[in-house]
Amino acid sequence: MGMRLWCGRGERNDVHMELFYRAQTEQGLGEAEIRAALKRSLEGKRPKKALLIPPDYTRYHSNAGFITNIYYHLLVDLGTEVDVLPALGTHVPVTEAEAAEMFGDIPYGRFLVHNWRGDVVRLGEVPAAYLSEITEGLWNEPLSAEINRLVMDPAYELILSIGQVVPHEVIGMANHAKNLFVGVGGSDMINKSHMVGAVYGMERMMGRDHTPVRKVLDYALEHFLAERPILFALTVTTAPGGNIRTHGLFIGDTRRALEEAIALAQQKNIDFLEMGIQKCVVYLDPKEFHTTWLGNKSIYRTRMAIADGGELLVLAPGVERFGEDETIDRLIRKYGYCGRLKVLELFREHEDLRQNMGAAAHLIHGSSDGRFRITYATKAISRAEIEGVHFAWADCDAQLKRYDPAKLAYGYNTMPDGEQVYFIPNPSLGLWIDRSKFQN
């Protein structure tokens, strides 16, 4: 276990914390090691009230559930009143069953629900001039920095933002300030940040730090949350066979925690391929993926690896709708994944898309722009519905029989008839890239 602790004086005479732990084997950090690290991060702290902000169930393999549970009990043992506010973004609330599976024995009554449309306060604005500078002139409007009002409640003497650093389609590498300004943020930041990423170009950002969206969130964190008692606990994980391995834990209140986590995640969560994939088969666990809003990670995370003219087959037995909320679901059904240029044209023409930029960005991200074929194999969504949003459809039972996730190995497989496919059992935990595309 590698560790780094740094304490220094900041501009406001703050003492900063950096506790960095890296596993020495591929099995990852053990539970006892993680528990000891979390306990150490609380040394000298006795908050009367604390707010934990972990990811929701869609980030089950982040190991944030275990970490949140340990933090909860450590703080309760200190006499702290603890609330848990999952970083839902636009997702549906965590159910009681999901909370029990992910977060253990934390009482469900301690979980609060974030409403991205109504529970936020406006902190300030990221200026239009700055947006224009960092996007090379592609975006020239300001963004409002909004956040759940609980984050600004002075009664919370400690705020723990917990989550996984992993490649991400909108920002490049997930978490840190994103967990706050998107996870428990408001509509303007969520919508416009997604659109900024879409306009700038997903393939220019995925797997990288210092992207335009990351710079927006860094700006908001520095200018609007510097006085809040926020401590980040960031993981880097993989989950071979569904078993979570925590390769690193980075706890701190500086950006260095993010940078160290990104460096490790780029090693653990990016798979470089020497040639493009002709056929990629991605399995979406029905416990985790219920919408194409989430299931399209299968597209985002593989698009830089699939060859021109190739095919992506998405095995989606649990996908039953398109959007995470009714408004976004309706917009996806109305416009479909019709390609970047067409979506931008529709965006200029239709007010409902302009009022829901996150949905417009999602439609851009979810199209291959005709470069490769996308086939969704579903049970609960009909062929007509899938084809209506510009995907191809396949019968899920038949495809699961042919491409059995329990039998396929991660990576290349040769089928009995000689067909070669590249199999990915969970797209959330990685990014797959044709090496030449990343280098270029």
Q: Write down the overall geometry.
A: globular
Q: Strands across the major sheet, in which order?
A: 1-2-11-10-7-3-4
Portion in strands: 15-25%
Number of helical segments with 4 or more residues = 17
Q: Assign the CATH superfamily of the largest domain.
A: LarA, N-terminal domain
Tell me what the CATH architecture of the largest domain is: 3-Layer(aba) Sandwich
Quote the distance from N terminus to C terminus. Answer: 35 Å
Percent helix, as a range, is: 25-40%
Q: Which structural class fits the helix and strand makeup?
A: alpha/beta
Q: Poorly predicted ranges (pLDDT <50, ≥5 residues)?
A: 1-13
Structural domains: how many: 2
Classify the fold: give the CATH topology of the largest domain. Rossmann fold
Largest sheet: 7 strands, mixed
Q: Provide mean pLDDT, rounded.
A: 93
Radius of gyration: 21 Å
Number of strands: 19
CATH class descriptor of the largest domain: Alpha Beta
